[in-house]
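WARN  no MSA supplied for this record, continuing single-sequence
INFO  ligand: guanosine-5'-monophosphate
INFO  echoing inputs
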Amino acid sequence: MCIFCKIVKGEIPNQTVLEDENFLAFNDINPARKIHVLVIPKQHYDSFDVIPPKVMASMTEFIHKVVSKLEIKESGYRMITNIGSDGGQEVPHLHFHILGGEPVGRLVR
Ligand code: 5GP
Ligand code: ZN
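INFO  complex generated
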């Protein structure tokens, strides 16, 4: 079982930001910015590549609620999802990173 599935099952503790029946938002264990929250579907999908569009639509609604709760809608934030090897994905369970609470900087090479 993957590490995020263990978090969903409560086998690994997490700092929950928001939760509903199908999705969970929790603080990243190694935050890259002042705010660094991970949003996951409770059901395991390897990555964004395989999430059914209907589930993604529900996840989008959930993410909007997370952003409201974090009070970063006005100041802005960055949302990214890493996919596969070249994408730098380390945990093979779809997750969106929400980064903010400060200017996150530009994406530069
Ligand atoms: P990826 O590189 O797969 O896009 O991001 C994985 C993220 O999961 C990393 O930012 C890492 O810090 C975070 N992470 C890995 N293991 C745990 C954990 O057990 N708990 C929490 N809260 N975050 C984790
Ligand atoms: Zn999983």
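The pocket of guanosine-5'-monophosphate (ligand 1) is lined by residues 3, 12, 14, 26-30, 38, 82, 88-91 (CB under 6 Å).
INFO  checksum written, moving to next record
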